[in-house]
Design brief:
heterodimer, A: 320 residues, alpha+beta, 60s Ribosomal Protein L30, Chain: A, Phosphoribosyl-aminoimidazole Synthetase, Chain A, domain 2, 2 domains, seven-stranded mixed β-sheet, B: 365 residues, alpha/beta, Rossmann fold, 3 domains, 17% strand, globular
Chain lengths: 320, 365
């Protein structure tokens, strides 16, 4: 079954010389620094407005590389398939993964499939790894934020989390909202062209913007101050959050980034992001401060301020 | 459709804040009854904007927080009865009962109990219809706001002949516990922010006993910053004028007479009964049980289960916090031993609990 799947479904879709050899490992030359990352995807449902688990897996891995300033080169893709998943659905996911990889200029050079008995997996799990080349002069890390840096967000928050949630059994609210699932490598390339003073990049996925900012504040041992009114949130995301008792700051994104950039370059970088279709609603949302290390503070709409903490546990909908 | 941004308007908020500063002369201790208000006040930073004359206290208005350990233990025990599917709202999942291992429904689920998070009572009914060979018990936690939806589900179950749907009614009523708090004399209040959603059901008239019997001004508030600031301004005005009455700062949601349809539903299916409130104890006529005619939907009467002996955590001061006597900062367990990841008391679990709200938005830890 697995061999058959590889021959019929994967090889034609991911067609490239590394994979076609069908050896135990892909071999390639390299020079200079490499970035190497891995992730697993277990999203429910596997198809959602704006994407599917295949696109999500590739974009997520490409983004992890891009957040280090790396140019994505090679990806691996492993599927754990629950017995009974229709082959057409698998094909659609494989095709969409390939489109996303091609779009990011990355090659899927190795993979694996396992079919497990019904109940041992939830339809389809995907594991990825990715290798990217880090150009010589690049030094981007969550630990590099400096006091005075501006905090730039590339667009609206919460779109992915709410789009996926709207499809889950039990919610059934209809919305035209789409997941923001997208590769950010091109935006990052444009940003790096515009400035050599980009200190941190992070994609606020699970745990949302709040968690990403807290991670950076802790890693860099700085304070971060943001302004509620400057954070772009779609009206439909805001509405769904109000209804369910969620805070958009904690809802997942799959196609957004937050950057810490030297103040003098901030407007130029913002312009570069906005020139990309995915970054039209980008905004400067705050700055890095000498405030208490690891602490994120937000100026609220009514002019007071509050602490923005990490996400703890899962977000659970409320009673009333 | 926009419905929040106009209630978060910075300049209007500043205007109300200035008015409150100008008018408030007398030191006033105000209680926000509802956990939703506690969260909104901390989340938007409203406290920092108030003059030093105003002290804010949290009240018992969080349904998860006031659920007694004995009642939680019943839910855990029911979840383990073979063949039972326990349906619950999400925020009950992580509340520890009195088991020595601080056992929660989430852990019961991990150990194989069939516990399902649902979003409305109709979801509970659907699970019952889809699993005719099983028994579905819906954990009926909430105030006057959720009670009508449980009543509607019972009526629908009866109409459609659904025989495997049960509720464990632990519903509680807000006015009786407020009276109990005021009667205890433990805390002296100069004003009360009455709950918005609950008042949408029961009507602002239900609070008239407070100014009449206790001379305390009451204002019903919504949950947006401008609602709360307007409510505070109205309370300060009453206090400074030396009057006490019930007013509404949430006219888009609340009428004096409330929602008659919802009230009739509650009355048709439920009758008042004594209820046990965490930290407060048994309060007469403050709970809801199924009326005689609907007893066959009562999970407590329909299953054989043993919740075991009830214990309270010795260090937890949730009870005193719920009575407005202490604030989360007074608790020795706060943040160190008790946090949203490892909650000791329910006030740290519920998103509407005052400990969780202080932890997330306010206090240094």
């Amino acid at each position: 079954m697995s061999h058959d799947l590889v021959a019929r479904r994967f090889l034609p879709a991911f067609d490239n010389p590394h994979l076609a050899k069908l050896d135990d490992a892909a071999i390639f030359d390299h020079q200079g620094r490499l970035a190497f990352t891995t992730d697993s995807y277990v999203v429910t449902p596997i198809f959602f407005p704006g994407g599917d688990i295949g696109k999500l897996a590739v974009c997520g891995t490409v983004n992890d590389l891009a957040m280090m300033g790396a140019v994505p080169l090679y990806l691996t893709l492993s599927f754990i398939i629950e017995e009974g998943l229709p082959e057409e659905e698998l094909q659609a996911i494989v095709d969409s993964a390939q489109r996303a990889a091609a779009d990011a200029g990355a090659m899927i050079v190795a993979g694996d499939t396992k079919v497990v008995p019904r109940g041992s997996a939830d339809r389809l799990f995907v594991n990825t790894s990715g290798i990217g080349a880090v150009p010589e002069e690049i030094n981007i890390s969550g630990g590099n934020a400096r006091v005075g840096d501006k905090v730039i967000l590339s667009g609206t928050i919460g779109d992915h989390g709410i789009a996926v949630l709207s499809q889950r059994e039990g919610f059934r609210f209809s919305t035209t909202l789409q997941s923001d699932c997208a590769s950010l490598d091109k935006i990052v390339a444009q940003m790096l062209d515009a400035s050599s003073n980009i200190h941190c990049l992070r994609d606020p996925t699970r745990g949302g913007l709040a968690t990403a900012l807290n991670e950076i504040a802790a890693q860099s041992q700085v304070g971060i101050r943001i302004e509620e009114d400057r954070i772009p949130v779609r009206q439909e995301v805001r509405a769904a959050c109000e209804m369910l008792g969620f805070d958009p700051l904690y809802v997942a994104n799959e196609g957004k980034l937050v950057a810490m950039v030297a103040a003098e370059d901030a407007e130029r970088v913002l312009g570069a992001i906005r020139r990309n279709n995915l970054g039209r609603e980008a905004a400067i949302i705050g700055e890095v401060t000498a405030g208490r290390a690891g602490r994120v503070v937000m100026k609220t709409s009514i002019g007071a301020s509050r602490i923005v903490d990490m996400l703890v546990g899962d977000i659970l909908p409320r009673i009333c | 459709m926009k419905f929040t941004s106009e209630f978060r308007h910075s300049e209007l908020a500043q205007g109300l804040v200035s008015r409150i500063h100008r008018h408030s002369q007398t030191p006033a201790r105000l209680m926000e009854f509802c956990g939703g208000h506690t969260v909104a006040i901390l989340k938007h930073g409203i406290r920092q904007l108030l003059p030093s004359t105003i002290e804010m206290l949290s009240g018992p208005g969080c349904p998860v927080c006031v659920t007694a350990n004995a009642d939680l233990d019943k839910a855990m025990a029911l979840a383990k009865v073979p063949g039972v599917i326990l349906a619950t709202f999400g925020d009950m999942m992580k509340v520890p009962g009195s088991n020595s291992r601080r056992f929660t429904l989430q852990e019961a689920k991990a150990e194989g109990a069939d516990v399902r998070i649902v979003y409305s009572t109709m979801d509970g009914l659907n699970i019952a219809m889809q699993n005719p060979e099983r028994s579905v018990v819906f954990l009926g936690i909430g105030f006057e706001t959720t009670a009508p939806t449980f009543a509607a589900s019972v009526l629908q179950a009866e109409q459609e002949g659904i025989k495997n749907y049960y509720i464990l009614s632990q519903h509680k009523l807000c006015p009786p516990v407020t009276r109990a708090l005021l009667d205890s004399g433990e805390v002296k209040l100069q004003g009360i922010i009455c709950p918005g959603h609950v008042s949408a059901i029961i009507g602002s008239r239900s609070w008239e006993f407070i100014p009449r019997d206790y001379g305390i001004p009451c204002v019903v508030s919504g949950f947006e910053p401008l609602d709360i600031l307007q409510c505070l301004d109205m309370l300060v005005t009453q206090i400074e004028k030396g009057v006490a009455r019930v007013e509404i700062a949430y006219r888009r949601g609340v009428r004096p007479e409330g929602n008659q349809t919802a009230l009739k539903l509650i009355d048709q299916v439920f009758e008042p009964c004594p209820a046990s409130w965490r930290g407060v104890g048994i309060v007469p006529q403050s709970g809801l049980k199924l009326r005689e005619r609907y007893r066959r939907f009562d999970a407590e009467l329909s299953f054989d289960f043993d919740p075991g002996p009830t214990k309270e955590h010795p260090g937890c001061i949730c009870g005193e916090i719920l009575r407005g006597m202490k604030t989360p900062g007074d608790c020795p367990l706060f943040a160190e031993v008790c946090n949203p990841e490892q909650p000791v008391g329910p006030c740290m679990v519920s998103p509407e609990g005052s400990c969780a709200a202080y932890y997330l938005y306010g206090l240094d830890k």
